[in-house]
Amino acid sequence: MTRQVWTEARLFEPQPDGRLLCTVCPHACRLDDGETGLCRVRMRSGDAMRTATFATSVVHAGPIERKPFYHYRPGAQTLTLAAPGCSFMCSYCINFRISQFGRPSGSAWDAVPVDPQAVVARAADAGAVVALSYTEPSLAVELTLALADAGRHAGVPVVWKSNGFLTDAALDAVVPVLAAVNVDVKAADDTSHRALTGGALQPVLHAIRRLADAGVWVEVSTPLLPGVNDAPDDLRRIAESVAAVGESVPWHLLRFTPTFRMRREVPTAPDRLAEAAAIGRQAGLRHVYVERALGPAGRDTACPGCGDTVVRRELWGPVHSTLIDGSCPDCRTVLPGRW
Ligand code: SF4
Ligand SMILES: [Zn+2]
To answer: Ligand 1 test: best mutation among 10, 15, 20, 39, most atoms within 8 Å of CB?
Structure first.
């Protein structure tokens, strides 16, 4: 157990009733002095907000494919940080001990303050990208901005794995500094999304579109939760919402493994993942991925021009790409991504 350190936070507005409105996420907590928000890691102190998220529980090195990103710097290493806390309460969260900090299922505080310059220097030495993942990075806006500021001078990008549950004010702050974001779309409609996560769906779809429109590289992930969101009609609607942002947006179908409040459920069957991938392609998506359950073919990138395989990925690591400056070596089609 470590000591929580509260530092100056951004993104709040005084309200006529004397409370402070936190404008980081759509939960829109209105706080009296000394109160923490639903996330438990942002707090009102006097006339300002403070955050405990300028800290991390982990410093992990690993391939960027594990976030997952398949069209952003394939084969790059990441240095991943995770400040405790989340704006969602998903029943299947594999990282629930740190994501659910402050709630009955969460662990005690185990994070230590971050020195952004030191993190960026370590990433630069390894040729790595800095990632915020495992917990919800939008609760760590200030840390993200500090890492991006340090990274800009060192040529180290910052990427997020996020639930996409952000306000426009939070997006205004982070869109200019993020290189890439993988966002989860976990349900097809608002009622199911609220039941699964505790938050509304529309802000997530809005954030995906804003990030993509601003030129941040976006990939989308959907965990296939048996009996929860894996009905063909639900998957079709999710795929269509991704395709509406762009048919080139990579869509990752994630296999559920029993954990947390869903530890008595069964893992997603491979044929459900194959069926979901087919639904994604029918919806127009050109790059649909399944990391493990469908073998190597689930991880390959095909050229949308000629159909040749142009990027092959081994499990957890090496990437074999024939792309030349992001283009197919055969038909010269430019592949969507940041290569
Ligand atoms: S980040 Fe969201 S949950 Fe946390 S205090 Fe702000 S509005 Fe509330
Ligand atoms: Zn081609």
So the answer is: 39
Separation of first and last alpha carbons in the chain: 41
DSSP code at position 267: P
CA of 329 to the centre of ligand 2 (A): 7
Interval between CA 112 and ligand 1 midpoint (Å)? 21
Average pLDDT of the segment spanning 222-236: 94
What's the rounded Cα separation, in Å, for the pair 156 and 123? 7
317 CA → ligand 1 middle, Å: 36
What domains sit in the chain, N to C, each tagged with a CATH number?
Answer: 7-51 (no CATH), 55-299 (3.20.20.70), 300-339 (no CATH)
Calpha distance 150→179 (Å, rounded):
14
Residue among 54, 47, 56, 50 nearest 37 (CA): 50
pLDDT of residue 94: 81
Find how far residue 110's CA is from the centre of its chain. 22
Burial label for 326, CB within 10 Å (0-12, 13-18, 19+), is middle
Ligand 1 pocket list (CB less than 6 A): 22, 24-25, 27-29, 37-39, 42, 87, 139
Ligand 1 atom, smallest distance to 42 CA = 5
3-state helix, strand, coil in the chain (%, to 5): 30, 25, 50
Neighbours of 32 (CB within 10 A): 10
Please indicate whether residue 186 or residue 262 has the higher confidence score (pLDDT): 186
Q: For residue range 211-228, list pLDDT tens digits in order.
A: 999 999 999 999 999 988
90 annotated to a ligand binding site: yes
Query: Left, alpha or beta for 229 (phi > 0: left; psi -120 to 50: alpha)?
Result: alpha
Q: How high is the pLDDT of residue 260?
A: 79
Whole-model pTM: value is 0.96
Local structure of 197: helix, strand or coil? helix
**Best probe residue, ligand 1, of 42, 88, 135 (max atoms within 8 Å of C-beta):** 42
